[in-house]
Design a protein that fits this description.
binds N-(aminocarbonyl)-beta-alanine; TIM Barrel; alpha/beta; 461 residues; binds zinc ion; 19 strands
């Protein structure tokens, strides 16, 4: 039996803060209390002056991602290492087959990239990138194997995007199976028309990316999804919501009874479109979809998180090297691989720029980066909580730490950081995955291959 005792920290959950010890036996939390006696042979962590959080969960990452003519850079080995250093103990990856791929074969392929290669726990959202006569049986089988969420794209037509008939059938099946549908919401026709106009006018640099995808493009995508969700009764989850206009459409729908959860990203809370306007092609580091927005949106998103309107904060981690892969779009912004890596940075940025600057309280940080994610994706209370019987995924966090983010020190397998030189307060010093330390003293000591595939059971009937 492995035993871990975390002593004297301030335990922080989504609803309360209190001082205490946490005793973990094998994979789970066995006791919470004051002055717990260490069993013989226990690993002891002194958490005095530190916070003890439930393991953080990133609900939106890309690790194996063939996309825009290239592949995202991380593997499960590098991504899970980076996640754990940053305090993330569970990742949910998007399984994104091409339209021509068989869904079951794709699921097996994505599993093969992860099983035996991850140091943290993981699951997948199953991408539905085509819906034909054979799809229902295949998706039903994938759900039987432990997947409780689908992923659809209203953007990227010709690659991952689906048409309206496919959207309707996917949502109808999701309702029948009790599966929640996560969705990338942008009106792709508007993107295509705007991109064509801009390129024809010789506007090719990275800053044109956000000109081609203004807030209306995203708001229209959200409105579209909401109409279909209302007609089918399916539960939905809007991924990477970036702006006030899209938020308004989602909240309108929620007010009329549409089942919708909302995710924003750490990038939209901290970066803005001025970053994508940096000269000498440096803006390419900041190209993602939906694009970074006018900075006025940041305060709106922080407030919506604090007030419970937005449910979760993810990263949409999608690492593409600047020196090589981003260069594919030198002459044409539509060819810049989309994505801003940040899997390792989410929690320290949330703490520094949210909690320390007074935009978010500590329990809200736990709620949006852990507990709500577990609740949305059928992992709660096994994950996202500190209670007896829950998985012993725990983060000991030192609020006294001061440092800076840099590509020179990060663990993600990508050649730049969008947050280069940014000051951060606080860091994860110890991180446990199911009772075993994977980070000690800020150093990765995890075991590649120990991370488990989390079988989930759908609940959205
Ligand atoms: O720009 C982004 N978001 N890249 C990853 C693919 C996606 O849309 O989620
Ligand atoms: Zn997306
Ligand atoms: Zn994504």
């Amino acid at each position: 039996m492995t035993t871990l005792l975390i002593q004297g920290g301030e335990i922080v959950t989504d609803t309360k803060r209190f001082r205490g010890d946490v005793l973990c036996k094998d994979d789970v939390i066995s006791q919470i209390g004051e002055n717990l006696v260490a069993p013989e042979g226990a690993t002891i962590v002194n958490a005095k002056g530190k916070f003890v959080f439930p393991g953080f969960i990133d609900p939106h990452v890309h690790i194996y991602l063939p996309f825009m003519g290239t592949h995202a850079k991380d593997t499960y080995e590098t991504a899970s290492h980076a996640a754990l250093i940053g305090g993330t103990t569970t990742m949910i990856e998007m399984c994104c087959p091409a339209r021509s791929d068989d869904p079951l074969e794709a699921f097996d392929l994505w599993m093969s990239k992860a099983v035996g290669k991850s140091a943290c726990d993981f699951s997948f959202h199953m991408g539905v990138t085509k819906f034909d006569d054979a799809t229902e049986a295949k998706l039903t089988e994938i759900v039987r194997r432990g997947i409780a969420s689908f992923k659809i794209f209203l953007a990227y037509k010709g690659a991952f995007g689906i048409d309206d008939g496919e959207l309707y059938r996917t949502l109808r099946l999701a309702k029948k199976l009790g599966v929640i549908v996560t969705a990338h919401c942008e009106n792709e026709t508007l993107v295509a028309e705007k991109s064509r106009e801009l390129l024809a006018a010789g506007k090719t640099d990275p800053s044109q990316h956000h000109e081609s995808r203004p807030p209306q493009v995203e708001a229209d995508g959200v409105h579209h999804l909401m109409s279909f969700a209302q007609m089918t009764g399916a539960a939905t989850y809007i991924v990477h919501l970036s702006c006030a206009e899209a938020l308004e459409r989602a909240l309108d729908a929620r007010a009329r009874g549409v089942r919708v959860n909302i995710e924003t990203l750490i990038q939209y809370l901290t970066l803005s479109k001025s970053d994508a306007e940096r000269p000498n092609f440096e803006g390419a580091k900041f190209v993602m979809s939906p694009p970074l927005r006018d900075a006025r949106n940041q305060a709106i998103l922080w407030k919506a998180l604090q007030e419970g309107e937005i449910d979760t904060v993810a990263t949409d981690h999608a690492p593409f090297d600047f020196a090589t892969q981003k260069q594919m779009g030198r002459e044409d912004f539509t060819r810049i691989p989309n994505g801003i890596p940040s899997l390792e940075d989410r929690i320290r940025l949330l703490y520094t720029y949210g909690v320390c600057s007074g935009k978010m309280d500590l329990c809200t940080m736990v709620r949006v980066a852990s507990t709500n994610v577990a609740k949305c994706f059928d992992l709660y209370p096994r994950k996202g909580s500190i209670e007896v019987g829950a998985d012993a995924d725990l983060v000991v966090f030192d609020p006294g730490y001061r440092g800076t983010i840099s590509v020179a020190t990060h663990s993600m397998n990508v050649d730049y950081s969008a947050f280069e030189g940014w000051a951060v307060q606080g860091c994860a010093t110890e991180v446990a995955v199911r009772g075993q330390l994977a980070v000690r003293g800020g150093i990765f000591i995890g075991e590649i291959g120990r991370g488990q595939f989390l079988k989930r059971k759908p609940s959205y009937f």
